[in-house]
Design goal:
The protein is α/β, with parallel strands linked by helices. Helices cover about 40% and strands about 15% of the residues. It contains 16 helices and 16 strands. Helix 4 runs parallel beside helix 5 and helix 8 (about 220-230) packs across helix 9. The relative contact order is 0.16. The structure holds pyridoxal-5'-phosphate.
């Protein structure tokens, strides 16, 4: 018999206590933080779902790798172990370490970007978009229509719209498109996966116009596991084989190792083109470090190499994907509106449907985020008009397209009972939502205001 209960596929050897606070304490702490959970001390948070990036628990073997790290400036043995691990998955010729994902993006777009250039993607993550726009180039999001509807269920809501890609190439001019990107999974669209068929279709368009295809591969293993579960023809293949097939369609990739390499810091660029790789390495030396360490220590390279082996373990991925799905499904059963189906690394509450009477200028997502903290010491993040809202010339808010609350699940950090606790807290906030009236901003910085803004509740 195959047991129905999916267990955490690890034993816990080292624990980090979490601090319990009372509601009265949290009320005071939240006032001190200007009702902005970004400004809370992490120590005052019971369950921290701010991000899944760099928050993974490392394994005993990764910690052993930390002790084994070779800190030689050039040609360290840890680099060669790292290079081998990345090559095994990506099959790419040139592997260039960087200190995190955005450093890889910075190098890539400093070389291929610039004014008059256009970079299509399913949805650019915000650092990718920022690195493109910083060079004067333009970033285009060509997500399939179903990916834009939180309430619609589909297997591969991260897919790129291939017809739109062809129109985009013809409109912008093939000579102005240095590469096309696909982000797996699609973080900004709710952690939704991209199908192998879609990757093949995008590759075919790229081949037709002779455009290189790059992957933003932060969550390649989660994406590969979704393909195994959902795409015909892949159930018998291993996740490693599926990942290898994904990368076989690409000419290059950027990766934030802080996600699917299960480490707290790290990233890389991988690509086949030797001339481009030489340019990247030259820039790497100026900005990150010698090509065999990038911006990392030898010990970090060891941890990434080990993490890449562990992340394709299917017991791990089953636990990972099913625990996020379990959380999502319980919320849906309780009536809580979320982006459906649950994604790979996070659950996104649809704050517009959760609080239909709180208008965007009263920031419904922020209200939910604050109440989750007050009710249970849970920290989530608003992804709506606080983060993306703009003002028109009369100072009136132009709201974001969606009002979401993201609860990103750190890898291997929380157990089933933490998730059950979370469900209880979220359902309580949902069932008492009538008391939530919204917030107003009392201070905001001119850029990226969500990090430092201060708020007050409206009555
Ligand atoms: C899809 C995607 N690309 C790029 C990045 C940037 O990676 P990093 O935070 O390591 O710079 C992230 C980080 O969250 C991401 O989710």
């Amino acid at each position: 018999m195959k047991p129905k209960t999916i267990i955490e596929p690890f034993k816990i050897k080292s624990v980090e206590p979490i601090r319990f606070t009372t509601r009265e304490e949290r009320e005071k702490l939240l006032i001190d933080a200007g009702y902005n959970p970004f400004l809370l001390h992490a120590d005052d948070v019971l369950i921290d779902l701010l991000t899944d990036s760099g928050t993974s628990a490392m394994s005993a073997k990764q910690w052993a790798g930390i002790m084994n790290g070779d800190e030689s400036y050039a040609g360290s043995k840890s680099f060669y172990r790292f290079e081998e691990a990345v090559k095994k998955i990506t099959g790419m010729k040139n592997i260039i370490p960087t200190h995190q994902g955005r450093a890889a993006e910075k190098i890539l777009f400093s070389v291929v970007g610039g004014k008059g250039k256009f970079i299509p993607n399913n949805t650019h993550f915000d650092t990718t978009r920022a690195n493109i726009e910083f060079t004067g180039a333009e970033a285009g999001d060509l997500l399939t229509e179903v990916g834009k509807h939180p309430e619609m269920r589909a297997d591969f809501k991260g897919n790129m719209d291939v017809e739109k890609l062809e129109d985009y190439i013809n409109e912008k001019g093939v000579e102005n498109i240095p590469l096309c990107m696909i982000t797996i999974t699609n973080n900004s669209g709710g952690g939704q996966p991209v199908s192998m068929q879609n990757i093949r279709d995008v590759r075919a368009v790229c081949d037709k116009y002779n455009i290189p295809l790059f992957l933003d591969a932060c969550r390649f293993a989660e994406n590969a596991y979704f393909i195994k579960l959902r795409e015909p023809g892949y159930s018998e293949k291993s996740v490693l084989e599926i990942a290898q097939e994904i990368f076989s369609y690409a000419d290059g990739a950027t990766m934030s190792a802080k996600k699917d390499a299960l480490v707290n810091i790290g990233g890389f660029l991988a690509l086949n083109d030797d001339n481009l790789a030489m340019e990247f390495r030259n820039l790497l030396i100026v900005t990150e470090g010698f090509p065999t360490y990038g911006g990392l220590a030898g010990r970090d390279l060891e941890a990434v190499a080990q993490g890449l082996e562990e992340v394709v373990d299917e017991h791990y991925l089953e636990y990972r994907i099913k625990s996020v799905e379990y959380l999502g499904n319980k919320l849906v059963e309780g009536g809580v509106p979320i982006i459906e189906p649950p994604g790979g690394h996070a659950i996104y509450i649809d704050a517009k449907r959760f609080l239909p009477d709180v208008s965007p200028d009263k920031y419904p997502g922020q209200s939910i985020v604050c109440e989750l903290y007050l009710e249970g010491g849970v920290r989530a993040v608003e992804i709506g008009s606080v983060m993306f809202g703009k003002y028109n010339k009369n100072g009136k808010l132009i709201p974001a397209m969606m009002e979401l609350v993201r609860m990103a699940i750190p890898r291997r950090v929380y157990t089933q009972s933490h998730v059950d606790f979370l469900i209880e807290i979220i359902l309580e906030v949902y069932n008492t939502r009538k008391k939530l009236k919204g917030y107003k901003i009392t201070y905001e910085a001119p850029m990226l205001r969500h990090f430092t803004a201060r708020f007050e509740p409206v009555s």
